[in-house]
């Protein structure tokens, strides 16, 4: 049973507000350290599935007040062991009355705050991001030109494309415009750098359009839509249960980096017709990845804490979902006729 330790720094006058919360069934164990000068440090061990409920309740208590600080850490192990008693926690009661499509999938899920911090930390334009995009593009281009699948896979491992794409989906789900703007900019810069660098390599190096690594990405099929949807859904689902970002990144990069680099190489070699087909594949993958990611976040029960933010997010979700679906249908039509 995955656990989280939640540590709350509470001023002297704030402890009584947490007494009820600490005695909830979702709290497996807690202890309190006190200091005459700094107040109290409350530490609670909570089932990972109930972390979000605890955080929401704690945030209601500390919102607008000074002197509080809340920190979450993953618990690797604890002795004596805490057995899963399958209690009907407040979190479970909370989702019991939800509509079927609003109930999260069964299983362990990390909290909204953990997701947000992990994803937002990986969204941003800096020298490391630019370097990783550049290096992964070069490695992917050389792997494609040599028709070496292993090298292309290596490029996908180091490509930093996971953060901005998952960030785009999460920002849409939460109605977070700041993260949305940051994700769009990061994604645009990364894809542009990758494309331009691939074009340059296409100008400098011979490009054989008949090799498998290129030919397979200039033939777009409806099955590519299924691949992109599955990659997006699997990537986000894995992210929400706390899997390694490196593993998840490959799922996203497999749909974006090779076709993007192929497009750039073909443009650099002046093979514009083939470049158009590979560009359609890039477009298909971007659209379907984000469509699947938004849907998966929704199925996992990710939503803003407060009702007014949730209502705002629902409207944004409907608009974004409609746009992605229209674009997906448009791409499907293009694929059908090309």
Could you give the topology of this structure?
Elements: E1 3-10, H1 19-22, E2 27-35, E3 39-47, H2 51-62, E4 69-75, H3 90-96, H4 112-121, H5 127-145, H6 149-158, H7 162-174, H8 177-204, H9 212-215, H10 222-240, H11 245-268, H12 272-299, H13 307-337
Antiparallel strand pairs: 1-3, 1-4, 2-3
Helix pairs in contact: 4-7, 5-6, 5-8, 5-11, 6-11, 7-8, 7-12, 8-11, 10-11, 10-12, 11-12, 12-13
Low-confidence stretches: 87-92, 97-101
Largest sheet: 4 strands, antiparallel
Strand fraction equals: 5-15%
CATH class assignment of the largest domain: Mainly Alpha
Query: What would you call the shape?
Result: elongated
How widely separated are the two ends? 50 Å
Count of extended strands: 4
Strand order of the largest sheet: 2-3-1-4
Keywords:
13 helices; alpha+beta; 2 domains; Alpha-Beta Plaits; four-stranded antiparallel beta sheet; 338 residues; 62% helix; single chain; Glycerol uptake facilitator protein
Notes on the protein architecture:
The structure is a single chain. The protein has a four-stranded antiparallel sheet, with no helix packed on it. The protein folds into two domains: 95 residues, Alpha-Beta Plaits; 226 residues, Glycerol uptake facilitator protein (Up-down Bundle), CATH 1.20.1080. The protein is elongated, with a radius of gyration of 23 Å. 62% of the residues lie in helices and 10% in strands. The protein has 338 residues and is α+β, with helices and mostly antiparallel strands. Helix 6 crosses helix 11, helix 7 crosses helix 12 and helix 8 crosses helix 11.
